[in-house]
Amino acid sequence: METIILAAGKGTRMKSKLPKVLHKVCGKPMLQHVIDAAKSTGSSREVVVIGNGAELVREKISGVEFVLQAEQLGTGHAVLCAKENFSNSAGTLMILCGDTPLVTSDLLKKLSDAHENSKAAATVLSAELPDATGYGRIIREADGSFKKIVEHKDANDTEKNIREVNAGIYCFDIQKLFGALTQVKNDNAQGEYYLPDALTILKNSGEKISVVTAENFSDTLGINSRVQLAEAEKILRQRKNFELMDSGVTILDPATTYIDSEVEIGQDTIIFPNTYLEGKTKIGADCEIGPGTKFTNMIVGDNVQAQFSYCHDSEICDGVILGPYVHIRPGSKISAKVKIGNFVEVKNSTVGEGSKLPHLQYIGDTDMGAGCNMGCGTITVNYDGKKKFRTTIGDNVFVGCNSNLVAPVTLEDGVYVAAGSTITKDVPKNNLAVARSRQTNIENWADKRK
Ligand code: UD1
Ligand code: CA
Fold first, then answer.
1. Residue 10: its pLDDT value, please?
2. Could you give phi then psi for residue 409, rounded to 5 degrees?
3. What is residue 181's predicted lDDT score, i.e. its pLDDT?
4. pTM higher than the cut 0.90
5. What is the distance, to the nearest Å, from the Cα of residue 442 to the centroid of all Cα atoms in its chain?
6. CA dist 9 to 22, 69, 253, Å?
7. Is the dihedral of CA 398, 401, 403, 405 positive or negative?
8. Residue with the nearest Cα to atom 16 of ligand 1?
9. Which atom of ligand 1 is nearest to the CA of 9?
10. How far, in Å, is the centroid of ligand 1 from the Cα of 135?
11. Please, what's the b/e burial string for 159-189 (b: 16 or more CB within 10 A of its CB; e: otherwise)?
């Protein structure tokens, strides 16, 4: 089985600069959802027809072949643009639309199995929608067999009352399809070459057309507007949450938990409300994440706790405790059993095992060893207004409160820094560095002032 995915349309109803098929649902472009569903159905090859925003689509989507439809003359014309790509093919061609991100591989499997078992020239997927507005309606013969598809804009009032719609998903015998497509005309309300007309042409030449109806209409929803995009997001998010719960993850409040499609979470991890897990985030087992936490592209070990924190493009190892109010910025690695507390920012830094950053630190461009303790208000001064510099901190370093470490600077193993110091010079192993003016107490000063 080979696949064509139609994705050249502009998506006028989205009112967007971005091509419709690149709008994301659960963190992944809708076209990518469709491609992934095709691949997991056993499609051997996916040809994507692009047009509007073609360059951007090529940039964002990989692992498929592209065909350009320079002018969007309709879905039938779009398929015809890919004719050359299939000149040596035989067997089943599945056709999908790039704007139906909710389609599942189970459903596609059901369609392709039915198609192959029935020996039909074409099989179309239908669905019963509560509101069929905008869709092509399935018109059946008196005996219930397929007659034709009428687009909403071409439908009369009786036809508009039909709630069984064309899901825009089909299986065709490849060579029969291309034979029929060359006969499709554009004498309709939109002046377009409609792909569904190929079904009528095949039927009229004596071929068998099958209809498979989706049990769950929401799997077939097409996205044409931002309202529909939000509906799809809600359905897919719920699907993802249920999938995770079925695999042993606790989600306290699925309605306020936003987990992207590709995210992985280990057993017995608990996700608290108002949490966003995005991109390629991977979380281990027995963690407690949230409330109010956002992880984007994070690799997280087991037994990690994080509250009210935002962490992105970094790694957090086993047993780390974060928050409340921690910001971990890209390029950081937080080793096992580290504790990072209230109002701490870590950027592009490694923090060694068991080190503590309990409150109010900025650690940027730093390599910190194990067993360190940063006093409240420790700041790595990494930027001189032009360039960034690194700070190196050995193992078991103790930095007193409210200290500045002016980079580039190195604190070797076992160093102590007196509270309130501004460190500008390297500190050798096991030294105490004091870098502040001495205190003077002036006797009876207050009395004299009076
Ligand atoms: C289409 C079907 C309709 C079906 C609905 C299901 C036709 C004529 N109508 O309508 O029966 O109920 O899908 O969602 O096929 N595209 C191109 N090139 C073009 C035109 C469209 O690549 O010249 C692509 C679009 O990018 C989109 C897909 O084809 O991904 C469907 O096009 P769209 O305009 O959304 O069709 P609908 O009006 O929704
Ligand atoms: Ca559509």
1. 85
2. -155, 150
3. 97
4. yes
5. 64
6. 12, 9, 37
7. positive
8. 9
9. 26
10. 9
11. beebebbbbbbbbbbbebbbebbeebeeeee
